[in-house]
Design goal:
The complex is a heterodimer of chains A (231) and B (583). By secondary structure, chain A is an alpha+beta fold. In chain A, 31% of the residues lie in helices and 13% in strands. Chain A contains 8 helices and 7 strands; from the N terminus they run ββαβββββααααααα. In chain A, the strands form 2 sheets. Chain A has a 5-stranded mixed beta sheet with strand order 2-1-5-3-4, with helices on one face. In chain A, α2 packs parallel to α5 and α5 crosses α8. Chain A is elongated, with a radius of gyration of 20 Å. The longest helix of chain B has 25 residues. Chain B starts with a strand and ends in an 18-residue tail after the last strand. The mean pLDDT of chain B is 97. Classes of the chains: A alpha+beta (231), B alpha/beta (583).
Chain lengths: 231, 583
């Protein structure tokens, strides 16, 4: 199978280049990650991240034929050859398909991604009805792969100021939690021309999310709450 | 060089539960991880965490304790098992208070589902003890722990690979060497306490549910530092890995009512385990499946798998309780689980053995006639450790519990040690030399064996010679092959010479750890002439308590084996003496 892969090693390359590969696959190779492992067997200088190989750890996000996705859950049969692989767009490239995710995580950390509840906990669990718990579905499953934020033009232009879809999805995950008590602080934290409002509902995030989540929807909910609070 | 009160190696469930205690107590802590913390393999756990909350009906930690001891085929240490099962409700409530999104019952309490080997009233009938967040319990737990560590301002060293332990002349551990992957630099991290939380090593087998990163780094580090590894012959085959792909299908499927079928459409577990049936212990179910396949009742064109049927649960239950299973079956088996059964085979999943510790996480080794002398400065928690709560076979849901209970206990123990008041022990003169020489070899060797080639042969060898059923002939041939592979691994070379994120170099370093793990496993398995839990010897089909009710200790030097007694004495309750194990 034919691949065209972005290569860059800051120690020897003045600028990025593409390398063509034609590798023989094993009949059991099913996903793009399987093929990348084959490529690495013949060229160990190709660097990429990978771990769980089942779409739950979020390591192997990359740009696949122009669209962000996880290599481990991208079926080879769905790909047009040569398969063009690039690092996630919009983040600095460390090497080959490996990007520097510091800015992405900085935004995630900026929304206080943890439950805030200062009342002393009960001896047992805090109670939550199944209906309250259901409100977290579609929010808590995020794997922080960064497919969404690095597909978002608003994030490309203002990665330091716009929280981005992944961070905002997490922000809403805590707002929606019946156990969280920091709604006002969470809204204050986002009330700014950039942090939340740079989302122009382009919906690339929804299109690429490998877990089928809807960050744009979550952002809409936050905006609604913010408007309600204002009136 | 940098100095800390504590250095943690690994940021999975155990590492981050320990780091949380340490960071919240204000210690200076460095947490090293090969991957960003939420990418650790705890994230892949599905079915739940075991605790006798009693939310679905009566339960008691004593029943949980009995089930765990029976599951371990009496090889588990009863003091550690008592501690774990007694602590379970409290640590689960804490996770809930941290914000973990557990599923809920109509009364608002945490939802619990049945799981293999868990029973009411000492084996009477299945019980609902597994606290679940859909079929993403590990993901929910790992992210919650990371979030709580963000709140505690824990210092993470992301994409740093620990290489070797540093021990001084008295044998105390005084820190580690580590490779910063982005720059390729090696650094010494000096510490008053070094905690290994590196997880499992399922990558020594070809068919494994384990992630690429599960290469037994902590085991290799301990072995090279002349410390023993305990009970490494005991590897759990999870009954339901997707045939061909190895991806895990949670036991929670059977907990929710799924059943296993052979080619005749027969629910064969009724024959092997009349009482708990499909919810018998994992070793029992895996052996039964293997037996069915061996006797020609496997499914598919090659009759090499069985079927996991769950469509009768209805799309509503499947999409609510098992949504990821639906997704995995679709992606990795081309199967819509709401309509068709999933092809499954027993697949390597979990290592019961590891670095020997006590219930405070302190690493122990025989010295001067005492089998459990503390190795000063070194701790181990989670799958890389052997405390031993799982003995010869782990119960489902007890792995997440192990991480949280002993990660927390070790963190608390270290906080009580008042490390900030202690001075650092001096580094030995040759600190770092072993790691530098390993790297120098990799960085200069040319024309040697291929790293992925040797690793692939190792995985195939372990699969063929150390599988579900073992015998002397297979094992002894396997031992020779693994020793040969050790020689080959010492002659590997890579072509990548860059310092920047050189993953070929990382894989070569990981191979050293895989080799140590594989040697420990197959040498220990060859020596143990009995069948117990996950070790099934067709030439020694019975458990032999008279000779083998003891823990194996393997040492790297000369592949030496030693043994130590199982602790059959719980902390406060009466012992559960060994008896025949039926489900």
């Amino acid at each position: 199978m034919k691949f065209r892969i972005y290569r860059y090693d800051p120690e020897k390359d003045a600028k990025p280049w593409y390398k063509d590969y034609d590798v023989a696959l094993d009949p059991h190779d099913r996903m793009l990650l399987d093929a990348l492992v084959r490529v690495k067997e013949v060229d160990d200088t190709l660097s990429f991240r990978r771990s769980c190989r089942e779409g739950v750890c979020g390591s192997d996000a990359m740009n696949i034929n122009g669209k962000n996705g996880l290599a481990c859950v991208t079926n080879l049969k769905t790909l047009k050859e040569p398969v063009e692989l690039r690092p996630l767009p919009g983040l600095p490239v460390i090497r080959d398909l490996i990007v520097d995710m510091a800015q992405f995580f900085k935004q995630y950390h900026s929304i206080r991604p943890y439950l805030v509840n200062d009342t002393p906990p009960p001896e047992k669990e805090r109670l939550q009805s199944p209906e309250e718990r259901e409100k977290l579905d579609g929010l808590y499953e995020c794997i922080l792969c960064a497919c969404c934020s690095t597909a978002c033009p608003s994030f490309w232009w203002n990665p330091d100021k716009f929280v981005g879809p992944a961070g905002l999805l997490a922000a809403y995950r805590f707002m929606a939690d019946s156990r969280d008590q920091a709604m006002n602080e969470r809204l204050d934290n986002l009330e700014d021309p950039y942090r939340l409002f740079r989302c122009h509902t382009i919906m690339n995030c929804v299109d690429v999310c490998p877990k089928g989540l809807n960050p744009t929807g979550a952002i809409g909910r936050i905006k609604e709450i913010m408007v309600k609070r204002a009136v | 060089m940098r100095k800390f009160d504590a250095v943690l190696v690994g940021a999975g469930g155990a590492g981050m539960r320990a780091s949380l205690q340490l960071a919240e107590a204000g210690l200076s802590v460095a947490v090293l991880s090969k991957v960003f913390p939420t990418r650790s393999h705890t994230v892949a756990a599905q079915g739940g965490i075991g605790a006798s909350l009693g939310n679905m009906g009566d339960d008691s930690w004593l029943w949980h304790m009995y089930d765990t001891i029976k599951g371990s085929d009496w090889l588990g240490d009863q003091d550690a098992i008592e501690y774990m099962c007694k602590m379970a409700p409290q640590v689960v409530y804490e996770l809930e208070h941290f914000g973990m999104p557990f599923d809920r019952n109509p009364d608002g309490t945490i939802y619990q589902r049945p799981f293999g080997g868990h029973s009411a009233n000492f084996g009477e009938k299945p019980i609902q003890r597994s606290c679940a967040a859909a079929d993403r319990t590990g993901h929910a737990m790992l992210h919650t722990l990371y979030q709580r560590n963000v709140r505690a301002r824990t210092q993470f060293f992301v994409e740093w690979m620990a290489l070797d332990l540093i021990r001084d002349a008295e044998g105390s551990v005084v820190g580690v060497t580590a490779l910063e992957m982005e720059t390729g630099e090696v650094m010494i991290l000096q510490a008053k306490a070094t905690i290994l939380a590196t997880g499992g090593a399922g990558r020594i087998f070809a068919a494994s549910t384990n992630a690429f990163i599960n290469t037994g780094d902590g085991l290799g580090m301990a072995a090279r530092a002349e410390l023993p590894l305990e009970d490494m012959e005991f590897w759990q085959f999870h009954p339901t890995g997707v045939a061909g792909a190895g991806v895990l299908i949670t036991e929670g499927v059977r907990g929710e009512g799924g059943i296993l079928l052979n080619s005749a459409g027969e629910r064969f577990m009724e024959r092997y385990a009349p009482n708990l049936k499909d919810l018998a212990s994992r070793d029992v179910v895996s052996r039964s499946m293997d037996q069915e396949i061996k006797e020609g009742r496997g499914c598919g064109p090659n009759k090499d798998y069985v079927l996991l049927k769950l469509d009768h649960l209805g799309p509503e239950v499947i999409m609510k309780r098992l949504p990821s299973i639906h997704e995995i079956a679709l992606k990795f088996a081309n199967v819509d689980a709401t309509k068709e059964p999933i092809p499954v085979v027993p697949t390597i999943h979990y290592q019961m053995g590891g670095i020997p510790t006590n219930i405070h996480g302190q690493v122990v080794a025989p010295k001067d006639g005492s089998p459990n002398t503390v190795v000063p400065g070194l701790y181990a928690v989670g799958e890389c450790a052997c405390v031993s709560v799982h003995g010869a076979n782990r119960l489902g849901t007890n792995s997440l519990l192990d991480l949280i209970v002993f990660g927390r206990a070790t963190g608390n123990f270290l906080v009580d040690q008042n490390l900030p008041a202690e001075g650092q022990r001096a580094l030995p003169r040759d600190a770092g030399e072993l790691s530098l020489s390993r790297l120098a070899r990799i960085d200069t060797a040319t024309g040697g064996e291929s790293v992925p080639g040797v690793a692939a042969t190792l995985r195939k060898t372990m699969q063929a010679h150390c599988g579900v059923f073992r015998n002397a002939e297979l094992l002894s041939a396997g031992v020779s092959k693994v020793m040969e592979l050790e020689q080959q691994a010492a002659r590997t070379s890579i072509t990548d010479r860059s310092r920047v994120f050189n993953t070929a170099r990382v894989e070569a370093l990981e191979l050293d750890n895989l080799i140590e793990t594989a040697k420990a496993t197959i040498v220990s398995a060859h020596a143990r002439q009995e069948s117990r839990g996950a070790q099934a010897r067709s030439d020694f089909p019975n458990r032999d308590d008279a000779h083998w009710l003891k823990h194996t200790l393997w040492y790297r030097a000369g592949n030496r084996l030693d043994y130590k007694p199982v602790n059959l004495k719980p902390l406060t309750v009466d012992a559960f003496p060994p008896k025949a194990r039926t489900y």
